[in-house]
Amino acid sequence: MKDISLYIHIPFCKSKCNYCDFLSFDNKDSVIKEYVNALINEIKNYSDFAKDSNVKSIFIGGGTPSILSCPDIEKIFDTLKSYYNIDRDAEITIEANPGTLDEEKIKVLLSSDVNRISMGLQSCNNGLLKKLGRIHTWEEFLNNYNMIRNSGFDNINIDLMFALPNQTISDIENDLKKIISLRPEHISYYSLIIEEGTKFSRLYDDNKLVLPAEDVERDMYWLIHDTLQDNGYKHYEISNYALDNRECYHNKVYWKEEEYIGMGLGASSYFEGFRYKNINNLSNYIDINGDISKLKESTEKISKKTSIEEYMFLGLRLLEGIDKIDFYNRWGHEIEYYYKDVIQELIEKGLIIEDGCRLRLTKKGIDVSNFALSMFLFD
Q: What is the pLDDT of residue 352?
């Protein structure tokens, strides 16, 4: 049996954050149960594609999956267990926001075999949380975090952001002290990106959003990097840190170009050389009721060229870099066959380094990663 991962999208939130361009909706409580019923049918229908597969990870993302009721959570996981071959050691993650968990729901997650919770915090500063449009405080997060930890969960991720409006180096230092004292197993730390169509985008266009200068943003990044590494967190991907043996298996599936099936509104799949994407219209998704022949908005056969590009572009996000032997085994040519001149140019510019059989970004390369990675796109 081959290994596969599953992603399940829950597109509902209590409130839409000011920076968020994810496929999610607030004030949709009236359709959540209908959505879950349609999702369950899609999960059942996709099981034929995965009947000879061993599920190594499941990631329930959003939106805010923890907004679901206990019965809806149980229905989703009962369906997954009934229709898929789930590895006994599978990593099973659900995203959660503070204020959407209580002791009853945490017990349901445990009984459903969820073994990893990804908590959205973004900042420990209540003033910054308000600017972001978050609906919780640091104190509410801490209460939920302690509740999760005391219930027996031993694999928790905390999502944070930096380069926020009016954020200072001192704010980052204070956040790091608080987070490190909690000792989560995994920390994701992303730089704010102003996405088109968000409230922050409109404020930015009207010159009403004061962001840190680029050099300050880089100082924040390396402060985070150095502080977390000094406290036992391995920097294994550009924006991700983990204690020993706590790297996120599911995310590495994406970065290593391995197979996954995505289910739910707008979800994408990469399976047997094809990339699929579901429709984005919520009412249509509910009406289709899990018929996967009607859910696909697009189907693309991934060419060898595209596959190589994605392997390089995503794989170099990992701090371990690209394994040249793995590259040869996948495509039957040395990596230099395609990228000799690009590799030489990036080495001369100090952006990548050749370390034995691996290619990886340097510190300078990480600072200009978008440029360095774009060099591996074919003309």
A: 97
Instruction: Return the structure tokens found at 241.
Output: 């840190």
SS3 content of the chain, % helix, strand, coil (to 5): 45, 25, 30
Residue bearing tokens 């040249």: 324
Question: Is residue 191 within 8 Å of residue 159, measured between CB atoms?
Answer: no
Give me the sign of the Cα torsion angle 234, 238, 240, 246: negative
Rounded CA-CA distance 333/339 in Å is: 11
Helix (H) or strand (E) holding 188: strand 186-191
- With the C-alpha atoms ordered 194, 195, 197, 199, is the resulting torsion angle positive or negative? negative
pLDDT of residue 78: 98
Residue 248 CA: distances (Å) to CA of 56, 114, 187, 251, 282: 12, 14, 10, 6, 29
Q: How far apart are the first and last CA of the chain?
A: 37
**Please, which pLDDT band fits residue 121 given cuts at 50, 70 and 90?**
very high
User: How confident is the model over 260-316, as pLDDT tens digits?
Assistant: 999 999 999 999 999 999 999 999 999 999 999 999 999 999 999 999 999 999 999
pTM (predicted TM-score): 0.96
Write out pLDDT tens, residues 33-56: 999 999 999 999 999 999 999 999
Q: Which long-range contacts (CB under 8 A, 24 or more apart) does 168-172 make?
A: 168/212, 169/216, 169/219, 169/220, 169/223, 171/123, 171/125, 171/128, 172/220, 172/223, 172/224
Phi/psi for 197 (5° steps) reads: 90, -5
* Rounded-to-10 torsion of CA 193, 200, 170, 95: -70
Cis amide leading into 63 (omega within 30) = yes
Q: How far is CA 33 from the centre of its chain?
A: 25
How far apart, in whole angstroms, are the C-alpha atoms of residue 163 and residue 193? 9
